[in-house]
Specification:
two-stranded antiparallel sheet, 6 helices, mainly alpha, about 35% helix, single chain, about 5% strand
């Protein structure tokens, strides 16, 4: 394609917002970052590290594997497949997901993070050695799995909103 033809192509608006509906009806608002080449899940102005402090890849696979290692130390049951299945249903893998429309949100305690945990549940089932930030992927996964273990026997037994 010639340079002149390239300049005639319509440009996409980088501020267009996309609303995606997830399996349970949870909506996730995706806002592209203008001029950004990488995005940080922690929301900091620095580039996201390629590994977590524990040495796992700083992505969904690494967060699940790091959580499983912590869960094994704390005798919290759960499998990679059970965690992954629930994350994909609850947040589509977005650690910054927040539900602002359901009954929890209406009560002022919206569900947050990869496994859509509310603040009181996160505080009650927080696992020592993980962050106290509900949006921290490893802390969110581990607390949610701890809750699921107490309530359902394991995150593997959760097949819908919990």
């Amino acid at each position: 394609m010639s340079v002149a033809a390239q300049h005639r192509r319509p440009r996409r608006n980088p501020i267009v917002r996309t609303l995606t509906v997830v399996g349970t009806g949870a909506a996730v608002l995706a806002l592209p970052l203008i001029g950004a080449t990488t995005a940080s899940a922690a929301g900091s102005s620095t580039t996201t590290a390629s590994t977590t402090l524990a040495g796992y890849p700083n992505n969904l696979d690494g967060w699940i594997r790091e959580s499983l290692a912590i869960m094994a130390e704390k005798n919290i049951p759960g499998t990679y497949d059970g965690i992954h299945r629930n994350i994909m249903r609850e947040s589509s893998g977005n650690p910054q997901a927040i539900n602002l429309w359901d009954s929890n949100a209406a009560a002022g305690i919206p569900s947050k993070g990869l496994l859509q945990v509310i603040d009181p549940t996160f505080k009650t089932y927080h696992v020592d050695g993980t962050s106290f930030d509900i949006y921290d992927p490893v802390a969110n996964i581990t607390a949610a799995c701890n809750y699921a273990a107490a309530r359902y026997g394991s995150i593997d037994n959760v097949h819908g909103a919990y």
